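Quarterly update, task 2.4: adenosine-5'-diphosphate-bound model.
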Amino acid sequence: MFNKILIANRGEIACRVIKTARRMGIATVAVYSDADREALHVRMADEAIHIGPAPARESYLLGDRILGAAQTTNAGAIHPGYGFLSENAGFAAACAEQGVVFIGPPTSAIEAMGSKSAAKRIMEEAGVPLVPGYHGDDQDPALLRGAADAMGYPVLLKATAGGGGKGMRQVWSEGEFDEALAAAKRESLASFGDDTMLVEKYLTKPRHVEFQVFCDNHGNGIYLAERDCSVQRRHQKVIEEAPAPGMTEALRTEMGDAAVKAAQAIDYQGAGTVEFLLDEDGSFYFMEMNTRLQVEHPVTEMITGQDLVEWQLLVANGSPLPLAQDQVRINGHAFEARVYAEDPDNDFLPATGTLGFLQPPDESSHVRVDTGVRQGDEISVYYDPMIAKLIVWDESRERALQRLASALAEYRIGGTVTNLDFLYNLATSRPFVEAELDTGFIEKHSELIFHDRHQDLERELPLAALALLLHKQQADGTRSCVDPFSPWQHNNAWRLNEPHAHRLTLHCHGEDHEVLVEQRGLDYIVAAAGRETRLRGELSGDTLHLDAEGHRQRGTLARTHDGYTLYLADGACHFQDVQPDTGEADAAGADAGLSAPMNGTIVALLAEVGASVEADAPLLVMEAMKMEHTIRAPAAGVVKAFYYQPGDLVDGGAELLDFQADEE
Ligand code: ADP
């Protein structure tokens, strides 16, 4: 076995690999960029080598520098994690040349799966079922349209070099085809430097079901059951589970055998994932194969009791697979929720921030938290904004789902916007509980999953206001007296013979709200959001005890650089204390308009200077944190000038273009 391995990655996956290596007695080397000097993965590894500035292109994507780090530290093998260089055939080949083991499949297998269309041709020959479609080299637009017409609409255009849901367009009728093709090609060229397209039948209610496969170099190949990853936003996974609900033993065997056949068709070795679309009628189609460890591998580990990173190390070291197919057992059910710094109410816009408050649920045999950050760390603009993966296990789907809901409710993160409430609403929604899964789940059930802001406000604002008042009093020392309820102890806002009233302004859900809190003995009468609520409350440290007319609850009040977060049993409420004249909340609530929503890179300009455009017309595409954002016209008008060109870096808040709206 290797004495020492280098992990060519960062964040949670680097930490996760280090844990297994340590358990196996293998020393570890981390690599880090300027932005990651203090990162958890650097702390956890036995050694760490600095490889460059923060942008991935200048650090984590530099194969030579990473190989140099392996040489300096005498690491015998490199684990690439996922993303970055994990599916880079050139890097795998360079490792082989330098005599360093690449913990992954052979270069030829990565190459074979690198193009979606070439992969489909290989699978077709191997007899693996494919979605009907065209995946040839001839890219004549008329030929592509002819293929679409022949198979019937809707169809899906896909970039053959694509990934992460980019370069894909649905086309619902013949008339839309040309425009959609142009858009998909443009996006693909910008993202992958290649605009080759394939056309396939668009399935309207499929599930995404993928199989974990493993092959060694002794001719063994097996599958470790499947994962259902149907719940997606922008074609990216949000909650994954294993096994897939409703999977029968017969279908599992059929799909699993097809997956192993797919892997063996390219002489695969190591961990891989074969993704299928599973149609309502039980037919399934090969979509693609990922030649690396997947983000969602932990759900497979939880139900099989195996450590897949350990398996990767064994196979890379030349050992046979630890289990034969008939020894693989499925036990219970597991879920993984991806906790992101992002704003679900704003089209999942990635967010940044310092995690001033971070309290994950307690880990146990039922709850696992895979993360690469600690309290005080920053979610920066340079990398994927995932904060953690929350993984739960129990004997049945129902019980595992209950665990997921309570672990999400206990998860407390302050200092950035997160998708925790969204995940909680999703996990507890009736269709999810009843496993009515398909890839359109989120759009279809958006009313259930997204908050009704008005209802939120009515419930949260009075509690938040009381929490804020108690916090201010605690900070002033006005509540630290022997008799906390004696009026003589208060030195703010208390007047003899006058109601003991406090006026507060809270910035919450994007707006300022005036709240009046009146103290009457032990009670607080809170007038907020057009209603009066009678409350009692006590704050000790950051723990808040609330009593709303007999309904008692315990919460936590966290203060970070960007305001306060009140965590209660049914979710979190973020707010800021608006001080007269300081404008603290104004900055946070500033309208993005035609300015960059965050630091990023300009990808494409979509309008001509001087052109008249309709309201909502796309004007500019920028990329930040691996996601594209389209800046649209706020009204009908004329584009006077663009201040940046494709490839330029822009700071969050920078004016991007000069736009003149038409007169009414
Ligand atoms: P990427 O490599 O960009 O992630 P995939 O080919 O893996 O793209 O597809 C991503 C997602 O897009 C799938 O999980 C599925 O939800 C959807 N999808 C892909 N192909 C089809 C299709 N033919 N019909 C319907 N949905 C599809």
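Highlight for this quarter: The chain has five domains: 4-103, 132-201, 212-450, 456-479+488-577, 600-661.
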